[in-house]
Amino acid sequence: MKKIAILGSTGSIGTQALDLCRRHPDRYRVTALTARNSREKLFAQVREFRPEMAGLTEGFDPKEIPEDLKFCRWMSGPEALHAAAAEEEADQVLVSIVGIAGLRSVLDALQAGRQVLLANKEALVTGGHLVTDLAAKAGKPLLPVDSEHSAIFQCLQGAGGNRPEKILLTASGGPFRTWDRERIERATPAEALKHPNWDMGAKITVDSASMFNKGLEIMEARWLFDMPEDRIEVVVHPESIVHSAVVFRDGAVLAQLGVPDMRVPIGYAMAYPERLETGVAEPDLFRLGSLTFEKPDERKFPALRLAREALRAGGAACTVFNGANEEAVAAFLRGGIPFGEIPRRVEAAMEKLSGLPADCLDDILEADRQARLAVTGGR
Ligand code: MG
pLDDT per residue over 232-247, tens digit each? Predict the structure, then answer.
């Protein structure tokens, strides 16, 4: 029986992880749940899974807790994340909150000796060196939940210790893959929120349309697999069946395939090194008939070039890339800037804030603050 704490339990990853816990009550016991502000959803989860601790990170009035849920220790604010990551008893901590708050939670969980199931991108993007150092010292390898990184991690299980020459990071290409530059420039939030294959939150769906998501994933792969950016190739694969692949020096390529359903990578991280029954069917190859692959167009999607530049620059450049993008996406979703302005705002922030250090958590949080300010102009 594994004890699992879930940070961000009402989001897309969190609810699917709980779906797996529901399927396997003999294998998982939920000890802590946190959400940002989805009260009713969290209350229903606490009622069903009966964790020892639960919290809303945006805070709440204790009077709001329903009488029948008072068996559980309730916390609010950032302390709720700390308690769920490091204080409450757990073998595994699934970090599926969105944003840079994930960095502190991952460091907290590793320091407390927990196995981290990583669904938060920002922790590696902004503090990859701190997180991987700590995970190595703790002897607890990070278990990736992002579908591409789970695929690469799964392929490496068959590598017998051989390091790959190259990683092939697949990308769906998003809803604007076949659009021309001018049309992408003027895309609306409704158009950006229509993802062809994956059902995800709003921020990551926009990132998928701009390919900023793939830029962030190049950064994740760099740290998870200790691979320089020039050996991580992005391959556009619109069917989202091949979730990524690794190339070895003998020319062999190992890939992981499956239908686009996050329960597979979530379940793999939860049960590693075993495999769990997830309720996901195998892809119907006969019905698919063929799979296609394309080279990404970096003129249409400058995010890929910017991500590589940030990785090469080092220091806090990736933190600036991430923070500036987050603010630019928020401005786009509010109708404040056109879609095509997102990468321009990020590039301007990277130029303005080049050379910031990232030696510790405080450095990183400061670079994040400055990056956001560079985009919002202090609004
Ligand atoms: Mg992904």
Answer: 999 999 999 999 999 9
Q: Are residues 156 and 225 in contact, defined by beta-carbon separation less than 8 angstroms?
A: yes
CA of 198 to the centre of ligand 1 (A): 9
DSSP E strand stretches across the chain:
2-7, 28-35, 53-56, 73-76, 92-95, 115-118, 143-144, 166-171, 232-236, 242-247, 253-257
Cα–ligand 1 centroid distance for 216 (angstroms)? 9
| Span from the CA of 32 to the centroid of ligand 1 (angstroms) | 25
Residue 303: closest CA among 197, 218, 364: 218
> 269 C-alpha to center of ligand 1: Å?
14
- The model's pLDDT over 304-362, given as tens digits with 9 standing for 90+, comes to 999 999 999 999 999 999 999 999 999 999 999 999 999 999 999 999 999 999 999 99
pLDDT digits 0-9 by tens, 29-72? 999 999 999 999 999 999 999 999 999 999 888 899 999 999 99
Residue 108 CA, ligand 1 centroid: distance in Å? 24
Protein residues with C-beta less than 5 angstroms from the ion ligand 1: 146-148
The Å distance, Cα 288 to ligand 1 centre, comes to 21
For residue 352, give the H/E element and its range.
helix 341-352
**Residue 148 Cα to ligand 1 middle (Å):** 5
> Any residues with CB less than 8 A from the CB of 95 and at least 6 apart, and which?
7, 8, 85, 102, 105, 106, 109, 116, 117, 118, 119, 120, 123
**Helix or strand (DSSP H, E) at 128:** helix 122-138
Residue type present at position 226: D
